[in-house]
Amino acid sequence: MMKVRSTHADLPECRQAQILVVDDDDIIRTYLDAILSGNGYMVSLASDFETVRELLDRQNFDLIIADLLFLERNYSGLDIIQHVTENHPECKAIVMTSHPSTHTAIAALRLSAVDYLCKPATQQEILDAVSKAFADSGKESARSSLANPDTTLSKREMEMLDLLFRGFSFNQIALKMHCSLPTVKTFSQRTYKKLGVKTRAAAIHEAIKRGIIPPAGTDADNQPTGSQDVQSS
Fold this sequence. Notes:
The chain is an alpha/beta fold.
């Protein structure tokens, strides 16, 4: 198993990063525990909100990785992230989900989640997200991207990303941009690769975080009729 540096740039050299994994799926918790602890991180596990509160009362965490959907519960991972950011603002947060959507990606960003991972996430994707969360405060990268948005994406790619953000389907985007459907799909694949993501929701989350897309006016009501909120390609 690949090893990565496990200490936050702002942490004392003698202390390993503390990560709290929250998921109601035993297999997912075990999977994440194996990857993270195998790479030098100190990992605690929780399957519900109550356990999260108990653990946060006992110790400080540098990062929480929370699933979005908790079956047969009256809360979601966003509620957990909100509790953490309000009561432990020093703790960074990553959201994981099997059901990515524009709505939850934006909601996660508003709660200051530093990443939005789609299941099933590979070992490399998980380690990269954790490493990025610890290495980047977000301030410099966001400022740089806001000042030079065209350095990452071309004008056409940014136009397509804006239409994706507004909820248009690929067919609708092709009509709007006066190009073929395969061309739109090529734009999307290229844009996702540049942003380091694999889905529409994750792309929107990353684009807003970088300042490429303004966070204002992000309600689902702005989406065109008949558009699909979840698209994985």
